């Protein structure tokens, strides 16, 4: 069998959670920098640098979201192929039971070679 859908789905969820955590960290960083009780050039420099860091963190959060989107797209393909394999196996079973597939050598159960099997 190819790809454990539950594991992939879990990883997609975890990437999205991490993206949210990263963005929350960015927001917290900016809020803490803004809350610094002192003023002057050093304080403004600190705030500016923390805003830059927060922007970079938000970018990392976006990268996590894109990775999750890509993995979710992959998951759809994995599930589609698994369904197609199961359908081909079921069809072959039915045809074999009816005696309509003489000499048919079936691929291993769950193997991707089932995707290449055609029935006429």
Automatic annotation (TrEMBL):
InterPro entries: ESAT-6-like_sf. The lineage of its organism: Bacteria, Bacillati, Actinomycetota, Actinomycetes, Propionibacteriales. Residues 71-98 form a coiled coil. Keywords: Coiled coil. This is Uncharacterized protein. The keyword Coiled coil applies.
């Amino acid at each position: 069998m190819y790809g454990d859908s539950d594991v992939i789905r879990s990883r997609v969820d975890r990437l999205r959670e991490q993206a949210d955590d990263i963005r929350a960290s960015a927001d917290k960083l900016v809020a803490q920098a803004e809350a610094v009780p002192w003023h002057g050039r050093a304080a403004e420099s600190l705030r500016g640098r923390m805003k830059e860091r927060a922007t970079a963190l938000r970018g990392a959060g976006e990268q996590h979201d894109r990775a999750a989107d890509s993995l979710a797209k992959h998951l759809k393909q994995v599930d589609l192929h698994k369904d197609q394999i199961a359908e081909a196996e079921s069809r072959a079973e039915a045809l074999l039971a009816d005696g309509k597939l003489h000499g048919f050598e079936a691929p291993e159960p769950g193997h991707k070679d089932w995707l290449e099997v055609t029935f006429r």
